Amino acid sequence: MGFFNFDLDSIEGYVGNHLRLFISMVAGLIVFVGIIALTVFFINVRGAEQTMVPNVQGMELTGALLELQVKELYPRIQLRYTQTSADKGLILEQSPEAGTIVKAGRRIKLVVSQGALINTVESYLGRNIDEVRMDLQTLFASEGTLAPPMLTLKEPLMYEHSAEPPGTILQQQPEPGTGISGPTMLELVVSTGPEEALVRLPSFMGMSPDAALELIGRIGIDFVFSMRPATAGETPGAVVGQFPAPDTMISAETRVSFTIAAPSNENRSSVFNLFKYAMAKNPYPLALRLEAQLPGGERRRLLATEYAGGELTVPYDLPAGTVLILLVLNREVYRETVVRPVESLNINQL
Asked: How many Cα atoms sit within 13 Å of 58 on the Cβ side?
């Protein structure tokens, strides 16, 4: 039995030591896993970086969206009608308020104006038709829907002579105050000005293009220019023909033809030519202006008149490189650069 004589106290001590070591390792592992879990939890709770909500109230929607994008914020848009169409597309309210600290990725509520809700026909009497057109286009600009506008102009418009200035709205149907329950066609009667009054056509013979254009602008006649080479006895660059003849009584709608004896462009520092532009015909004349921006940057007026449309022809004598700018109702509609005609260039210039 000597070989099997165990020291029970030693065995119990050995087992106890290893058991305590095992328990310590298990406890340490549990603590380690707990730390990892708490770290992940707080990372998720903390979320994205914090940012300050910008002030976008009063801004246009496009600009507001860009401001939010910079701050990594996202919009939640709500549309609202207001009392005026002037604030259409502007941010009326925002939530949270500007200056609030939020997490990146937060949605910001934006209340956007849809402009005025049209439920009655307003009065357009006495207003200019061009202004009304622009107002209606602005009021019923696309809002991202396929729904037709509530109010559209019936084309073509009706015109009649009156003592009111050309373009003034004289009558409308439906009448002001009429309720609108769906898409409605607006019929307008527009003034073309007083009944035609005859004027005595002055003589343009011998005038330079600048002088002729200045007189045309003062008396407001319809016109067309043509050019031909100067013949013996004629002054190059001057008006050498007009029809109807001077002292003829004409109406405002009579188109007067002028012929200019064109000088040769060879060996000249400037270019003599005709500016040409095809304009749509209008029932009444519109304010028209032709300007020249010289190569040095100076800008000067060539013509200012009322013009009803058609083929516009304006003589000029300007340096090559000048930019001709045509404006109708103070809006630029066309521009071109003055170039020297190829036929006037000699072999050395080429």
From this structure: 4
Residue with tokens 């909500």: 53
SS3 (DSSP) at 191: strand
Alpha-carbon distance 217 to 288, whole Å?
Answer: 10
The angle formed by the CA atoms of residues 190, 192 and 195, to the nearest 5 degrees, is 130
CB 139, CB 85: distance < 8 Å: yes
In this prediction, residue 149 carries a pLDDT of 75
Give the span between the Cα atoms of 240 and 234, in whole angstroms. 7
**Total Cβ atoms within 10 A of residue 231:** 9
Residues 102-114: tens digit of each pLDDT: 988 899 999 998 7
In what helix (H) or strand (E) does residue 70 lie, and over which residues does it extend?
helix 61-70
Place of tokens 């409605």: 184
Interatomic CA distance for residues 156 and 258, integer angstroms: 33
Closest by CA to 161, choosing from 252, 99, 241, is 252
40-67 pLDDT, tens digit each = 666 555 555 889 999 999 999 999 999 9
State residue 287 phi and psi, 5-degree precision.
-65, 125
Amino acid identity at 245: A
Is the sign of the CA dihedral 231, 235, 237, 242 positive or negative?
A: negative
Is this prediction's pTM over 0.70? no
Q: Give kind and range of the element (H or E) at residue 24.
A: helix 8-46
Q: Which of 258, 276, 243, 264 shows the shortest CA–CA distance to 208?
A: 258
CB-based contacts of 171-174 (< 8 A; 24+ apart in sequence)? 171/125, 172/121, 172/123, 172/124, 172/125, 174/121
Q: Report the DSSP beta bridge partners of residue 237.
A: none
Q: Which two tokens stand for residue 83?
A: 């009392």
